[in-house]
Design goal:
single chain, mainly alpha, elongated
Length: about 240
């Protein structure tokens, strides 16, 4: 055999061995493994902080941390059955105004940034200003509930779970009709937790008449919230 014979190439490392080598191979300063572990830990910390912030801003305490809410609608809500009742079950601010589903909740949180802006601008920082805007704010909430079939109400109240015969005579008569006609909670219960604005009945009808007369931003919000405007419009008045 010649002394100048080319040596046989070394066998190629297996996939696991190559991945292991890459994981612990240094970049300019740090091993990829170190970078991956640190990035994962940072992600866990970020997600934990993000979720903590969501939970903090999803409490009654946070909702009434500004005087606009505490001195107005919260005082009204304290005199209702949703605040105090014989069963001891309380529906607080986020139970009625923040969706449970994560995607819908995120959209609502983004919408709330507009409320923060008006807090800064002082749009409703006095009772007089609040009452002056109460009708528009009410119509906005009514529309959101109407187009989502009173989704937050139905976390607790569903026609399928109701025993009509056990209800008081008026409710036991109206609820089956509402179910048949496709009506939703907000159609009859606009003032269940807060004081109604002047001419609320006429305002609700006006909201229904113009339920699809909205801008591009609201249409995007409707899409992201799975709002069914066509269904809401088709329900008999």
């Amino acid at each position: 055999m010649s002394d100048n014979a080319t040596p046989a190439p070394a066998p190629k490392p297996g996939l696991i061995k190559r991945l292991f080598k890459w994981f612990f191979s240094p970049t300019a300063r740090y091993a990829w493994g170190t970078i991956t572990v640190v990035a994962f830990a940072a992600g866990v910390i970020f997600w934990g902080g993000f979720n903590w912030a969501l939970e903090v801003t999803n409490t009654e305490k946070f909702c009434i941390s500004c005087h606009e809410m505490k001195d107005n609608v919260f005082m009204e809500y304290r005199n209702t059955v949703h605040y105090s009742n014989r069963t001891g079950v309380r529906a607080s601010c986020p139970d009625c105004h923040v969706p449970k589903e994560w995607g819908h909740k995120m959209v609502r949180k983004i919408q709330a940034s507009n409320e923060v802006l008006h807090k800064i601008l002082g749009t409703i920082d006095t009772k007089e200003k609040f009452d002056a805007h109460r009708l528009d704010m009410s119509k906005s909430v009514w529309r959101a509930m109407k187009t989502t079939d009173s989704r937050e109400c139905r976390n607790c109240h569903k026609f399928d779970y109701m025993e009509f015969s056990a209800q008081e005579p008026r409710a036991s008569k109206i609820h089956p009709v509402a179910l048949t006609q496709g009506k939703t909670c907000i159609d009859c219960h606009q003032g269940i937790a807060h004081k109604l604005p002047p001419k609320a009945k006429e305002a609700y009808q006006d909201m229904l008449d113009n339920i699809d007369n909205v801008g591009v931003v609201q249409r995007v919000i409707d899409f992201l919230q799975d709002a069914d405007v066509a269904k809401a419009k088709a329900v008999p008045r």
